[in-house]
Structures are given as structure tokens and as C-alpha cells.
Amino acid sequence: MRTSNFPASGQLHQRGFTLVELMVAVLLGMLTVLVISQVLVQSETRKRTISSGSDAQLNGALALFTLQREIQMAGYGTAANPASLGCKLSGQYGSTGTAFSVPLAPVVIVNGLNGAPDTLSVLQARPRSVAVPMQVKEDHAKTGVAFVVDSTQGVSVGDMVVAIPETITDYATSQCSLFQVTTDASDPVVTLTSTRVPHTVANAWNQSAVFPTGGFPSKSYLVNMGNLSLNTYAISATYNMTVTNRSWTNGTVSTQDLFPQVVNLQALYGKDTNSDGIVDTYDETTPTTPAGWAQVRTIRVAVVARSAKDEGVNVTTSQPLWDVGATDTITGPTTSACHGASKCITLTVNTIPNWQRFRYKVYDTIIPLRNVLWNS
To answer: Which of 276, 286, 303, 321 has the maximum number of C-beta atoms within 10 A of its C-beta?
Structure first.
């Protein structure tokens, strides 16, 4: 006789999860999700910090590269005669336009107050060929329409040209004049030839108001600036490095943002005070005479870039430092001991809201004024 191994009908029992087991499972699941979420949040935060730091490094490096490239070429054409450095370059677009005057110098530094960012103006010639000085052979009256010169080699219609007196006795009241080359084949007097540089008043840049009262006597000279470059670099209120330039087409001034999260720009003149070819001191004092400008051989620049990410907590405890070495003579900005025997200049960033919640990087270099060095 066979017997069954199954329980009798009605004796089958089913067992599931108890309430306690379900609560423990839910709790473990929640803890797992919480841990994973925390790991993801920390990972994303670290990723954003690293990405933000990389952006700051890129912006700072590009800002410094741009300044270095511009300043290296500063003074081309204008530094051909060191005796003219510092002359006031005057220009005006249109009879009702606003006249402007800038020093005829490679680089002009305007110091920011109390550690605020400096402003750098860089002047250079950009001719189609070469910027060869042209000596004026005949007296040119204030209302004249053409210069008679020894040679107009390299000059083309539309070029911007600077007229410079042979001798400047007072640089505070000196006047060098900016005009644009024109030509009119119907009239030999105002036709561009191998010895004549016309600048008729039909062109908006050619305003007699920018010429000195006595005009330009013979032995003055002209410098062909071509597509003149006068760029001013600054830091905007929104912490962008900007460049401001003037259009030689219509005389308007425009400002363009270059690199974001650049919060400070500081610069110093490197001067050779004893004419031995070696920079002796760095200072903030803008020269006022040709002798003073001739001492300026380099420009020392520091750029402070900031990470874009607000960390939410203080991650920076002190303002960034500009290490200027142990032996260089610094006049003007306050220095303090740092990094052992070195001296440092404190770069102001504490005027930025919540400045301690950002990270900063300093980029600096010394830029030789090549055109000044070659002409010396």
C-alpha cells in the first residue's frame, strides 16, 4: 500500500515577510540610496571644482599671453626716434568729433587706486610694409593739405600717419598730430606721389585743430602707422579682462570682453636707470620726458584669475601674492617677506563679494619692449 508524502488537505501553510522584515528592508534600501547619493554629490562637487579650476587656469594663461603678445610689439614705429617719446599724440574724427590725446609711448600704465586693477594702453604701428620715418622737406602750415617729404616709400592711401616735430622743448604742451593719407588725381597738389603725402580735409580724420599753431617746420618727420593699433586693457566691474580700441573707419570707441573671471591686473615699469642695459628698478611712475621713457625697457605684469564656482564655504584664507623675487628693487607698491627670502606684493581681491569662497591663481611675467631695445 502506497503512502503520500504530502500533508492532508487543509494542512498546507504559506509564509511571507513579516512587517518587521519589510521595515528592515526599507531601512537598508534607504541607507543604500543615501550613501550612493552622498557619493554622487561629492563626486559632482569635486568635478565642478576641478573644472572650475581648469577654466581659471585657461583664462589666466590666455590673458597673460594676450598681454605679452601685444606688449612685445609695442612701440613699433613710434620708438623710431627716442627723442619723440612722450609727445602728446592728438587726433580727432570729424569737425564735431571728440578730440583725444595720448602719450606717444609704447605702453602707458594707469594705476588703480588702493590695489584696484591697473589699466594698460599699448600703442604700435601696423603698416602694410614698414614704418620708415619720412623727413619733412618744406614747412607745413597748420591748414596745409600735403607734406613734402624725402620719400613716401611704403605709404598707401588710407594709412594713419603721425607728424612729429624735429625738436620738442616742452613735452607737457607738445603736440604730435594724427592724420590719414588721401589722394586726388585731379589735383597734383593733393595727389600721393613719391615725395608728397596729402591729407585733405575731405577726410574726417584730417582736422587742422589737431595741428600745432605754427604747423610743422622742415626737418620734422612723419611715421607711417598704417592700421594704427591703440589698445587699452582693463578689468571690468563684472570681472572680465576687456580691450578697448578705436575704429579708424569711423572714429568710434568700442570695448570687448576677452576672458572671464580675471579679477586683477597689476603692472610695473622695468627701468634701466644707469644705461648699462640691465633693469635696475621696477616702479609705477609713468615717465614724462623722453629720457624717462628711454629708461623703460620691460613691463612686469601680474594677472589674477578666479575660479567661477562659489564653493559655498570659505576656501581661501588670504589674498594672493605676487612673488617679485629676492633681489629686484621695487618702488611704489608695498612688499613683504614671503617664500623664504623672496618679496611679495599682495594682490587685492578682498573687495570682491564673498571673495573667500573662490579660488585664485596668479600668472606673471616680464615682457621686454623689443622695439625700444633695438632702437637704443
So the answer is: 303
Which one, of 270, 227, 277, 259, lies nearest residue 361 by Cα? 259
Return the domain boundaries, the chain.
49-74+260-375, 82-229
The continuous run of DSSP H or E covering 35 comes out as: helix 19-72
Q: Which three cell numbers stand for residue 237?
A: 566691474
Sign of CA dihedral 119, 123, 126, 130: negative
Q: Which residue do the cell numbers 617664500 mark?
A: 339
Edge-to-edge strands, sheet with 335-338: 321-323, 342-346, 335-338
Which helix H or strand E contains 338, and what residues bound it? strand 335-338
Spatial separation of the C-alpha atoms in residues 41 and 44, rounded to whole Å = 5
Q: Using an 8 Å Cβ cutoff, are 47 and 339 in contact?
A: no
Rounded distance between C-alpha atoms, residue 82 and residue 64, angstroms:
27
- The candidate with the shortest Cα–Cα distance to 357, out of 306, 321, 286, is 306
> Which of 175, 173, 194, 193 shows the shortest CA–CA distance to 183?
193
At residue 47, what are phi and psi to the nearest 5 degrees? Answer: -60, -45
Three cell numbers written together for 271 = 627701468
Global pTM?
0.84
pLDDT tens digits for range 264-297: 999 999 999 998 889 999 999 999 888 899 899 9
Residue 162 burial by Cβ neighbours in a 10 Å radius (0-12, 13-18, 19+):
buried
Residue 94 is which amino acid? G
Residue whose C-alpha is closest to residue 183's, from 199, 164, 169, 204: 199
Map grid coordinates 594713419 to a residue: 160
Could you tell me the CA-to-CA distances from 161 to 103, 115, 138, 341, 350 in Å, in that order? 15, 37, 17, 49, 44
Give per-residue pLDDT as tens, 83-122. 888 899 999 999 888 889 999 999 999 999 999 999 999 9
Average pLDDT rounded to a whole number, residues 4-10: 54
